[in-house]
């Protein structure tokens, strides 16, 4: 197998790059390319694999029979998705995974990760330890998302999300992974209402933005209208 991943993937932390090829073979890794809008899997598909984004972005979405959709998470380069469902051995994915932009993904067999390797692979313990740590971190991030979507108003949800992302990056400027429609889906709000709040916050001099680049301009004004 050709080298298809770099050592800075958190799942492979502690494993040398030269050994990663053997690990991927052990996990029956499959490398696939997807165009924007392609589904990696649909809700209801069997949970045979979990994925790692090599290039691009993947959205995890929940869609109902009426066509309503919510973006649950955006998965960026070197991040995993679907691992909790796959390792928990649930029968089917409850959510869909869709390429947000043209993307390259590695799909790995979860059973190969959790079962003993017939070759007595020395890296299984490292992989499992890394996996547990990554799942724990995702749970923390999920709690933050719950806090976000339970805010009462569109403005509160928007500000909570932007400030949280800025805190993660430790700066007052952030590039978010969503366009306007995807951001509205992620926050669970109406797109028109979101646009109105963005325009209002910009007019008030609290934030500035250009496409998906946002900057906090006046923290004191922010404190006046919203308390975190």
Automatic annotation (TrEMBL):
The keyword S-adenosyl-L-methionine does not apply. Residues 152-220 form the HTH crp-type domain. Residues 11-83 form the Cyclic nucleotide-binding domain. One of its GO terms (cellular component) is cytosol. This is cAMP-binding domain of CRP or a regulatory subunit of cAMP-dependent protein kinases. GO terms for molecular function: DNA binding; DNA-binding transcription factor activity; kinase activity. SMART domains: cNMP, HTH_CRP. Keywords: DNA-binding, Kinase, Transcription, Transcription regulation, Transferase. It comes from Paramaledivibacter caminithermalis (strain DSM 15212 / CIP 107654 / DViRD3) (Clostridium caminithermale). PROSITE patterns: CNMP_BINDING_3, HTH_CRP_2. It comes from the Bacteria. It holds the Pfam family cNMP_binding. Signal peptide: none annotated.
